[in-house]
């Protein structure tokens, strides 16, 4: 029972005792008016007058009974008034006391009712006993530390100004020590305090896991958490204590940077403040300077762990000229076809031009002071007239126009290779190929 409820019990008891005192004084005055010891009903004047009159008042107001019968009209009227006042006054006092005790235990009764309903739900769905014990532990610890299961239920009933005053008095001393928010607008920090939610984690509970979508930032109010890793998540990398903040990278980073980068679990009981990403975004809209500062700090956090690129040991080893691209597959296929049909001329020249590129692919790249000569398509002495629309098309042909090669550019940097051969040249190549095969068989 809290201090406030103890005060109410003491005040109600004081009212009851004072009413008995007034009644005792009135009984002594009535006895003196009738004459001390004149009848059996009045005070006879023996012993301590206040104690005996107070005893009479208690028996009258509480209606215990066992009092001598009044004999005179004055005594009868006095006693009737005493009985009526006693019934109403005592019933009011008892009812007031019951309300005080009931109000004092209302929160605990609510807590017990919530726990009983939760246990009933878990039993109906056959929840494992280990999980049930952890939930019971969470209920007990949360009620012991906070005196309530959810602080927001209390704060939401108050006006915004009072909520801010309470949040500043309770939480500002913790949030002001967070390095991330140092330098930000003071009013922005005040607005953020009203959005914080207090959550209790049990020993061994994972606050967040690596790869999860990060939607909250955590500030440690009480206790400590550990960053763990390894195959069994038992290796402790660092321990974070009260007043520290984590999860801010996932909260402030934009784009695809909203995934958790580490596994964090509670080491013992931990009470954390949680700031939701949506709430922070709504606050920063009104404080652009603080938003720029937080983004700047976030970039530093993202880059401080990256190692600088190692510099090259010598300048001679630097690759000034990139390696020559590989020979196109379509061009290789055309070369192979011409070799099979026995055609010499333009393709043979192009093959010789592209041969250094293939040799370079087979062996390791060598660094030369001067770039090697680029392959060239040699045009035949007899130029082919190009159409006006094909000004970007490359054409090469043999002297007798038996073979014509076209390189037509396409979209996205692709090129189309077209080979045209006369029927006589094709027939001649086929005959030479068959002749060679017959000689090899012989």
Q: Your description of this structure?
A:
- With 442 residues, the protein is α+β, with helices and mostly antiparallel strands.
- It folds into four domains: 3-104, Helix Hairpins (Orthogonal Bundle); 107-146; 151-303, Sandwich (Jelly Rolls), CATH 2.60.120.10; 329-360 and 375-382 and 389-441, no CATH class.
- The protein has helices at residues 3-34, 49-61, 73-104, 106-124, 129-146, 151-155, 160-175, 186-193, 248-252, 277-284, 288-304, 329-341, 346-362, 423-441, and strands at 197-201, 206-208, 216-229, 235-240, 245-246, 263-276, 394-397, 403-409, 415-421.
- A hairpin with a 5-residue loop joins strand 7 and strand 8 (403-409).
- The longest helix has 32 residues, at 3-34.
- The protein is rod-shaped, with a radius of gyration of 49 Å.
Care to give the gist of this entry?
With 442 residues, this protein is α+β, with helices and mostly antiparallel strands. Helix content is 50%, strand content 14%.
**Poorly predicted ranges:** 309-322, 356-391
Query: Which structural class is indicated by helix and strand composition?
Result: alpha+beta
H/E order of the elements? HHHHHHHHEEEEEHEHHHHEEEH
Helicity, in percent? Answer: 40-55%
**Strand coverage percent:** 5-15%
Distance between the termini: 114 Å
The appropriate CATH architecture of the largest domain is Sandwich
Largest sheet: 6 strands, antiparallel
- How many beta-strand elements? 9
Going by CATH, the homologous superfamily of the largest domain would be: Jelly Rolls
CATH class of the largest domain: Mainly Beta
Rounded Rg: 49 Å
Query: What is the typical, i.e. mean, pLDDT?
Result: 77
| Envelope shape | rod-shaped
For the record, the count of structural domains works out to: 4
- Number of helical segments with 4 or more residues: 14
CATH fold node name of the largest domain: Jelly Rolls
């Amino acid at each position: 029972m809290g201090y406030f409820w103890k005060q109410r019990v003491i005040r109600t008891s004081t009212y009851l005792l004072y009413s008995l005192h007034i009644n005792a004084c009135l009984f002594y005055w009535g006895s003196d008016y009738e004459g001390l010891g004149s009848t059996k009903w009045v005070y006879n004047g023996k012993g301590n007058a206040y104690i005996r009159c107070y005893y009479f008042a208690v028996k009258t107001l509480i209606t215990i009974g066992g009092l001598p019968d009044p004999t005179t009209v004055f005594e009868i009227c006095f006693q009737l008034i005493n009985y009526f006042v006693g019934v109403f006054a005592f019933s009011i006092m008892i009812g007031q006391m019951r309300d005080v005790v009931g109000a004092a235990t209302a929160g605990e009764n609510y807590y017990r009712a919530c726990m009983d309903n939760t246990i009933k739900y878990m039993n109906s769905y056959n929840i494992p006993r280990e999980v049930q014990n952890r939930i019971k532990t969470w209920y007990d610890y949360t009620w012991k530390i906070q005196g309530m299961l959810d602080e927001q239920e209390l704060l939401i009933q108050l006006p915004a100004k009072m909520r801010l005053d309470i949040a500043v008095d309770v939480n500002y001393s913790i949030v002001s020590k967070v390095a991330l928010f140092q330098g930000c607008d003071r009013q922005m920090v005040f607005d953020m305090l009203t959005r914080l939610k207090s959550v209790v984690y049990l020993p061994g509970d994972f606050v967040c896991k690596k790869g999860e979508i990060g939607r909250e930032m955590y500030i440690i109010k009480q206790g400590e958490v550990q960053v763990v890793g390894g195959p069994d998540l038992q290796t402790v990398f660092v321990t974070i204590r009260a007043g520290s903040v984590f999860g801010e990278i996932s909260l402030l980073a934009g784009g695809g940077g909203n995934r958790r980068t580490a596994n964090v679990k509670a080491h013992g009981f931990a009470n954390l403040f949680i700031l939701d990403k949506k709430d922070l975004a709504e606050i920063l809209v009104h404080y652009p300077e603080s938003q720029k500062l937080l983004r700047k700090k976030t970039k530093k956090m993202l880059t401080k762990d990256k190692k600088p690129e190692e510099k090259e040991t010598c300048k001679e080893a630097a690759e000034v000229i990139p390696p020559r691209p590989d020979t196109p597959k379509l061009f290789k296929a055309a070369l192979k076809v011409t070799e099979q049909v026995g055609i010499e001329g333009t393709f043979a020249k192009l093959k010789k031009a592209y041969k250094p590129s293939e040799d370079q692919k087979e062996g390791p790249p060598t660094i030369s002071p001067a770039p090697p000569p680029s392959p060239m398509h040699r045009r035949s002495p007899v130029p082919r007239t190009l159409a006006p629309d094909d000004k970007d098309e490359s054409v090469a042909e043999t002297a007798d126009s038996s073979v014509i090669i076209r390189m037509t550019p396409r979209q996205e940097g692709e090129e189309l290779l077209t080979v045209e051969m006369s029927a006589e040249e094709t027939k001649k190549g086929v005959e030479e190929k068959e002749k060679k095969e017959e000689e090899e068989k012989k």
